[in-house]
Write a structure and sequence with these properties.
With about 220 residues, the chain is of the alpha/beta class. It contains ten helices and six strands.
Length: about 220
């Protein structure tokens, strides 16, 4: 797997690069701003780009803008956006603008290299990755009418993993249940929510996240 890492902080960037190289990931280039990142992506054509959400010069949403530009120019290249803080609105914007081969993780997750590498591999393979903290916040929102009450405890657990972008097979393995049983749970959830079930993983994630975001207080 070939990766480019972009972060304005040299210490953070070098730390990510070192961890990835230690587990055999081929980091082909590094960038400290969005402009140099674009040129490096054109040159190296990596499998996935890891980019900080806040980059020079304004340190607002340059990472998101860069992610969208990369996907528009190179649809086959995945993008993993990292954030120091939980910013649900930015995460939703990213997933809605570029739903395939896209991920959003908090930098706290980088302490576990297994989580980072798993996210990169899933994004490379066309999946969507959402930080569990964001899913937890959306699930915990107070609602005027809470349709989550119609779900069993098991279905709530399945819903959270669907929202994180996991496939049925991965969810079944995580919960140690048969894939056919898992498919029944997913079907029940979508039926109770009035959502159409789509085989495309990113469309499932979009549908669930939009539903969880709606009608909150």
């Amino acid at each position: 797997m070939r990766v480019i890492v972009a972060d304005d902080s040299m210490l953070t960037r070098e730390g990510i690069v070192r961890m990835l190289r230690e587990v055999g990931v081929d980091v082909v280039a590094q960038a400290c701003d969005a402009d140099s990142l674009a040129a490096l992506v054109d040159e190296h054509r990596p499998d996935v780009v890891v980019v900080d959400i806040k980059m020079p010069p304004t340190f607002s949403d340059e990472g998101l803008v860069a992610a969208a530009a990369i996907r528009a120019r190179h649809p086959d290249i995945g993008v993993l956006v990292l954030s120091q803080y939980l910013e649900t609105a930015y995460a939703m914007r990213l997933i809605e603008e570029v739903p395939e081969r896209t991920g959003y993780l908090l930098k706290d997750r980088l302490a576990d290299i297994v989580i980072l590498v798993d996210a990169l591999r899933r994004i490379r393979d066309g999946e969507t990755v959402i930080d569990p903290t964001i899913v937890s916040r959306l699930l915990g929102r107070r609602r005027r009418r809470d349709p989550l009450e119609a779900l069993s405890a098991r279905e709530r657990g399945v819903l959270a993993l669907v929202a994180e972008g996991l496939s049925n097979r991965a969810i079944a393995a995580r919960l140690s249940i048969a894939e056919r049983t898992l498919e029944t749970h997913v079907s029940n959830i979508f039926t109770k929510f009035g959502l159409s079930e789509d085989a495309s993983s990113h469309r499932r994630v979009l549908a669930v996240l939009r539903f969880l975001r709606a009608d909150g207080e």
